[in-house]
Amino acid sequence: MAVPVEEAIAALSTFSLEDDQPEIQGPGFWVSTEKGATNSPIEYSDVSAYRLSLSEDTKAINQLNLLIREGKEMGSVLYTYRSCVKALPQLPDSMKQNQADLYLETYQVLDLEMSRLREIQRWQALAASKLAADMQRFSRPERRINGPTITHLWSMLKLLDVLVQLDHLKNAKASIPNDFSWYKRTFTQVSVQWQDTDTMREELDDLQIFLSTRWAILLNLHVEMFRVNNVEDILQVLIVFAVESLELNFALLFPERHILLRVLPVLVVLAASSEKDSESLYKRVKVNRLINIFKNDPVIPAFPDLHLSPAAILKELSTYFPKSSAQTRLLTLPSPHELPPREAQEYP
User: Fold this and answer.
1) Residue 44, CB half-sphere, CA atoms under 13 Å: how many?
2) Start and end of every CYRIA/CYRIB Rac1 binding domain (predicted)?
3) pLDDT digits (tens, 9 = 90+) for 178-193
């Protein structure tokens, strides 16, 4: 039977820790080399030994951390993607009779690249469903008492940040739609002699919708999240945590601060798009606090040579959710290209 955390802490406080006690075991080496306490090098496998009521939470945290690692690999694949079409050979007029062979070989080359994009499409669907299910766990009345731990909050935010970065990369890569158009054209040519291509055509249509729709990953996350309409509370908890961490400088390192800045506009839009009255969000977090945060950091890095604007994300996502567009003060924030010349020069 699991022991409540409060009782375990009370029991530990009764232990005697006087000096000059004999040591049964010598001093141990460091257990972790991580920078913060939100990471566990042994993936919390020692929790069961203490019989604490944390096994469900640590299992969920491990699942989120695994998805974060996989998502970063997907981001590397997408970030390093380069167009293949320009490297493909073109046949001269004297060799037009070999056009069918060229289409087949072109299709085989592009199919390898498109398979990586299909893998990203499948992964983001899995990650969105897992993140939504994890948030919905804390919407149950018995889980609202204490809420998620700080470690659990950071795992949710980091996975959401990975999804935001993937979506932003997909929007910024102009070479991907160009390659896909060639891939679809060659598929039409080579599939004439194939049988039972209906499944392949459906996958091709799904991939086309995924690649051509801006913010398709975040839109899919919204659908998964609001299948059960009880996630407003956990969204507001995440927003309050992010705002307070930014205002009070709890996030000391720039990577952590940038994570909060990237996910905050997404969280605001998701919370404001709820079927319930979104005014409860702005009672807990005043609009002026959000405006000051977005004004102080108009541009933040997404990748080494790719940047994004939290205010611009907020504006663009609001067009997909009419309820979130009701807060006009947030939508009047200037995008980077709309900054006055003096402010643009002063921004480092």
Assistant:
1) 21
2) 157-219
3) 999 999 999 988 888 7
